[in-house]
Amino acid sequence: MEKVIIIRYAEIHLKGKNRGYFERVFCVNLERAMKGLKHELHRTSGRYLVTAFDEARMEELCGRISRVFGVHSYSVGLCVPYDLDSVYRAAREVCPRAGSFKVQTHRADKKYPMTSMELSAHIGGRLLDEFPQLTVDVHEPGHTVCIDIRENGTALVFGKFERGAGGMPVGTSGKGLLLISGGIDSPVAGYMMAKRGMTVELLHFHSYPYTNDGAKEKVKELARLLARYSVSGRLLTLNVAHIQEEIHAKCAAELNVTLLRRFMFRLAEQTARDVNAKCLITGESLGQVASQTIEGITSSNAVVKLPVLRPLIGFDKEEIVLIAKKIGTFETSVLPYEDCCTVFLPDFPAIRPKLSFIEEEEKKLDAEALMREALATKEVFEL
Ligand code: ATP
Ligand code: MG
Fold this sequence. Notes:
Distance between the termini: 40 Å
Number of helices: 13
CATH topology of the largest domain: Rossmann fold
Radius of gyration: 27 Å
CATH class of the largest domain: Alpha Beta
Bound molecules: adenosine-5'-triphosphate, magnesium ion
């Protein structure tokens, strides 16, 4: 009796002619996730099987599989020869000793001498005989014993479906550049785009010496946590302290944040071109703070040509926090730190800045020189 992990995939079946491509990317991502843990990955009709793994590390293996986008569900089960006695022995391993249950059979091998119904009835009957505390309930069973008769003379027997990460294989939806702060929202935004199959690169702005190394370490830790979901294991950083100083010295105080954000977007677009990303991604949510009004969004969008994806735009903070907790970034995000946006923060930031006023104020700055200086501070961290 061999322990196996059965992996079922999510939306790949929707992709018609592209299916082969999606499956190849999915397979590469699964292999990457399981790297360093002993295993074999086999593709069988409509699912993947992981075999030959170290049972002592099965939990870790399952954890990694559960974070691969495209995994709809997975089950730990047993692979046995498909004769009745072997299937029965496996079934009694995965079935509890008491409570309601049913047996459900699927036959990929239609030449199997029994129908699905007959096999279910046979195995169910034997379980009832051996364990009198069991009762059959075909409508709402407390437990289901699943039997999958394969074409190669084996059967897969399992009891539970574990939920996978869902979504689409990372790498099938192009590449985007996430503006990642140390906050709660942007890591969630990156997770959500990766979930839809996007390769996500990370860019962080700091204001050294106004912000310290702690802030940077925190973002690196967030990047590491996101890497478990196939978000790039690389973090790019740029220093914008000199830009903030210039804005602070020369421009209307209420536009500090607005003007800084326009520089962030310009720098992000430039960086996106360098890494071949086709869009920017932010963690903005409508109305959450002064700069996240439609006017604020318009003023940032006005300085870039690339599309800006804001997957959290319609989310409440509470909903974002829930996802952050689920994906394990929340604890790190709430550690105290200084974000560059909080340096030189005006008392009353403009909530509905007029584009004409913004552009007027911006003329007081040498945008090109400021950009050049910022881009020269680029650092790359492989995590
Ligand atoms: P977050 O929780 O992601 O920090 P927030 O609610 O604090 O978001 P803002 O500070 O207005 O909101 O930032 C809005 C978005 O701008 C962030 O979600 C992020 O995408 C981007 N951003 C903000 N600060 C930085 C930074 N220092 N480096 C990179 N991107 C940033
Ligand atoms: Mg923030």
